[in-house]
Design brief:
Elements: H1 2-7, H2 12-18, H3 25-37, E1 41-46, E2 49-54, H4 58-73, H5 78-87, H6 93-107
């Protein structure tokens, strides 16, 4: 998905050429087809070549993934996730305070960063 977000619109060959490991184009096409079945990418056709783009923005997909993690591991409690991240030093208190300020600003109608 990272390459689709960065390169879109892109072909399977575009993605294959940017991978750090050699994969056949058919393998990349299979992965793209699976991502399309999941609703993450869509394609158009140009001269019989599929051209892919992401359906959702990276931030939206990330938020959905985090919500699934919160639901699975934290019984739906975002507070439990965030305090666990602070306790595990994944997120320090200063960064958490900066994020809280950004959230407060966004709720007040401020511009998102």
């Amino acid at each position: 998905m990272d390459l689709v977000w960065r390169l879109a619109p892109c072909t399977a060959e575009d993605i294959r050429s940017k991978l750090g490991q050699p994969l056949r184009e058919s393998t990349v096409r299979t992965v793209l087809h699976r991502l399309e079945k999941k609703g993450l990418v869509s394609h158009t056709t140009e001269n019989r070549t599929f051209v892919y783009s992401a359906v959702e923005a990276r931030g939206h997909v990330a938020a959905q993934a985090v919500q699934r993690i919160v639901d699975w591991f934290c019984h739906g409690s975002m507070e439990e996730l965030l305090t666990g991240m602070v306790d595990s030093a994944v997120l320090d208190r200063k960064e958490l305070q900066r994020l809280a300020a950004k959230i407060a600003n966004k709720k007040e109608g401020g511009k998102s960063c």
